[in-house]
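Fold it.
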Amino acid sequence: MGAADLVPGISGGTIALITGVYKELLKSINAISWNAISKFKTEGIKSVWIKLNGPFIIAIFGGIISSILILSRSIEWLMTYEPIGLWSFFLGLILASILFLIKTELQYNTTSLIYILLGAIMSYLLTQLRVISNETPLWYLFISGFIGISAMILPGLSGAYILFIMGVYHTLLTKVRMAQDLLINFSHDKLIEVTSVLGVFLLGIVIGIKVFARFLTWLLELYPKKSIAVLIGLMVGALNKIWPWQNQSNKNIDETPVSMVAVLPQNYDGGDPEIIKSLILIFIGFVLLFAIEKSKVIFHK
């Protein structure tokens, strides 16, 4: 989930959904509250820890944070120097995920089709938003964290892409790298700069994830089949953002691209379309989904 959340176009929520931990993740987030934590005085730490599903929360968010810290540089390098390979792998994974969810979770009727279309249209329109100028006051970072985390836990919508169009993605990625560098070359001024930016952003994340997780849980409990159909639609509508071949369009005066448009390999203007490599990585991503599902069955047995 952490690796997916780093890539504009991929949602950590998608990974949670296809690995079968999505509903438990929402339930665990909803269980965390000051009232629940304060009961450790009367019920004991162990009892509260079990009620909060502590081991699961630590495992999930420990994995996410570790992945972001460890893989941020690698993902950035792949996005710069191996974009076709990176997007091809995720395209295969998401295509397999959509097919798997349609087969296992979807009711085959007109209502489901309508909700899939609604989700796809909404997701597609969001992926067409223009990039906002890179202004990053602290209040704006808080709003970015609040909105970004909502997308990160929503399958199909990329939190990283939302942060990108809000103009804070590169700022945050830079601060994460600075935080890593502080472990080697400590600087008091840089520590203040990093903690102020990331601290406010994380505050937005904490509040946003609580609000949005409760809303999603309510939807899944009240309208389970319709909600799943919308979630599948969101994944379908976002496929254009992870298409391996993208050309720059609508450049500004300073030659920076305003948007990217998906094209066929033969129309790709970024050099070698690397079709063979792309097909191999699409296949690997596609097969990986079913390997994950098979390992889940073996694990549960």
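The CA atoms of residues 33 and 52 lie 9 Å apart.
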